[in-house]
Amino acid sequence: MSIELGWYLSSDGDGAHIGTKFADSPPGQETFARIAQNAEQWGFSTLLIPISQVSTHYSREAPTWDSIINATMLSAATQTIKLLIAVRVGTVDPVVFARMAASLDQLSGGRIICNLVSGGGGVAIEEQNFDGAKRVQRAEEYLKVLDGLWTQDTFSFEGSFYKFKDLTVYPKPVQELRIPLCLAANADAAREIAVRCAEYALFWVNSPEQATERVDEFEKLLGASEKRLKYVSRLQIVARETEEEACIAAQEVLSKVDPEVLAQRGKEISEFKNQGAEDPLERTKEEMIGPNLWAGMGRLRSGAAATSGPAIAILGSYEQCAKKIFEFGQAGIDLMILSGFPLHSECERIGRHIIPLVREMEREADLEG
To answer: What pTM does this model have?
Structure first.
């Protein structure tokens, strides 16, 4: 079985470095279309379009675009790549979103997947006192409302958070049955909801071994059910001809961090600079948490920034990175969303040098099996 490889859009622009005040290429139609079209051209099946209230790569003042707006724009700028749209439950009414997503599915020719995020980070005032249990319960109702409105001509619902009677939503999705639903499912309660209501479950993992554990947990919840969940995770990637070149490239991504941005992340410039060796090659090696797995971005990403995206990167030569991706596929990951900086050009590097190696490893494994 082949692992699907997806790419990451960003919502705050693009550039060769993170931690600067602003992106080299600010968010906009040209920046986002270039990333999406390059990812499509170089063999990625899916594009994750994230939702962020503030920039996760640059300063708080850096502009951040909305996921639904971006998806609408890119549905017309691409032809084949699937658009995995992140939407934070609680910020868009599910009845409104059901129509928006179905319209997008029509516009894109059936290429939409909806990624529902139930964790904290909403902008509404009531979110400040909204505990995790309530968020998860609301997420399940949200999923059920979408399903009902997309699959039934007239739909009524009565829950703790959403109540309505005899509503209709048109257009309906182009895709058979309905738009696939993906739930961010790191917490136990969210996993159970994904098993009941979603087609995809997204979770963070730091190694193939941890991926195996997560997949096993979901499979136990599925039990004897005939349902098949698809498992999604996300990692950064730094790949070069040699591992040494990749180590140096990893440090280059963090080489222009602004002290004000660090302070916004709750970090001190002295802490950022002085931990570990000064030599880029040696420092990267000190920050490895496993074979070809680098945790150095954790020096910048903390607090909300750390929970909104991975701080772990696959790092090494093209052969080493391909092998690590292959290992995640063997561990049960169906879709791996990757990202590297700059996003628009690193997707070409991965598509040109790594995807063919992964496919060759899969073919060899099939022949041996």
So the answer is: 0.94
> Strand, coil or helix: what is 189?
helix
Q: Where are the alpha helices (DSSP H) in 198-317?
A: 208-222, 243-253, 259-264, 269-274, 280-286, 304-307
Interior CA angle at 108 toward 86 and 175, to 5°?
A: 85
Alpha helices in 2-115 (DSSP H): 29-41, 67-77, 94-108
DSSP category for residue 9: -
To the nearest 10°, report the CA torsion of 347, 73, 86, 1: -50
CA distance 173 to 159: 24
Q: Confidence band (pLDDT; 50, 70, 90) for 9?
A: very high
Which residue shows structure tokens 């479950």?
Answer: 201
DSSP H or E stretch at residue 314: strand 313-317
For 75-125, the pLDDT digits (tens) are: 999 999 999 999 999 889 999 999 999 999 999 999 999 999 886 554 544
Both tokens of residue 76?
């017309």
CB 336 within 8 A of CB 234: yes
